[in-house]
Design goal:
- There is one protein chain.
- By secondary structure, the protein is mainly α.
- Among the domains are: 30 residues; 117 residues.
- Helix content is 76%, strand content 0%.
- Helix 2 packs antiparallel against helix 3, helix 3 packs antiparallel against helix 4 and helix 3 crosses helix 5.
- It starts with 5 loop residues before the first helix and ends with a helix.
- This is Translocation protein sec66.
- It comes from Thermothielavioides terrestris (strain ATCC 38088 / NRRL 8126).
- Keywords: Membrane, Transmembrane, Transmembrane helix.
């Protein structure tokens, strides 16, 4: 058997214990600071108004002086849940659109980790939100959770189309005014070109109609044949 020199191992073991303790302390403090900083980050989306309305209708409190809360019709609650699902569809579209851009910017170093943490937290919150909506839908109407987002997607697409049509109709008057101004400008330029061509034509015609001056003092040359005939007559 070999004798172990515990005194010689005491210093390395103490150094290792201190190193492990320091690492554990640093890791714990870092995780706590990261959690606090993540909790203080601004949310990716604003308040979910449709969800708050649905929860308010679902958990209606009794009025003062009344023991029972007012009964909310089931159709109103289902409509509120459907509006909540429509808002979730809009937010899902925004997350899918921003995910590729945020990932690319993060790889390039154009944005910090805070933005990516905000995005990941929003993505996780949306997953929980979708799961909650499905559960609420199945609780109201059995099997509704399987088709509620399909209906919400159709409503969102129709709303987007209506907004686009309203935008086009709102721009119709502006485009009409712009075209009227453009047409007036084109007409004015065209009339200027016609006036310029007319002036050029009048100037050219005037130069052709000018009289040709003939010098009457210069004796006219008599043809040789005519002079010979006159001599013969004599």
């Amino acid at each position: 058997m070999f004798d172990v020199n515990w005194r010689g191992l005491l210093l390395p073991l103490a150094y290792l214990a201190v190193l492990v303790g320091t690492f554990m302390t640093f890791s714990t403090v870092y995780r706590k600071r990261k959690a606090v900083r993540s909790a203080n980050l601004a949310p990716w989306f604003g308040p979910h108004l449709q969800r708050n309305i649905y929860l308010s209708l679902l958990h209606m409190e009794p009025e003062e002086g009344s023991e029972k809360a007012p009964k909310v019709p089931d159709s109103v609650i289902r409509a509120a849940l459907l509006r909540r699902a429509v808002e979730d569809i809009h937010r899902i579209i925004q997350i899918r659109t921003a995910k590729a851009a945020c990932s690319s910017l993060l790889q390039r170093g154009s944005v910090g980790d805070d933005l990516w943490q905000r995005f990941q937290r929003a993505e996780k919150e949306m997953e929980d939100e979708l799961r909650d909506v499905v559960m609420e839908a199945n609780a109201l109407v059995p099997g509704w959770g399987q088709v509620i987002f399909q209906s919400a997607n159709e409503i969102a697409a129709n709303k987007l189309l209506r907004d686009r049509l309203d935008e086009i109709e709102a721009r119709t008057e502006q485009d009409k005014e712009w075209w009227e101004k453009r047409r007036a400008s084109i007409k004015q330029d065209f009339m200027k070109e016609l006036d310029a061509e007319s002036e050029k034509a009048q100037a050219k015609a005037g130069s052709e109609d000018e009289p040709v001056l003939v010098d009457t003092d210069t004796p006219s040359a008599t043809p040789s044949g005519a002079s010979k005939k006159k001599k013969g007559k004599k």
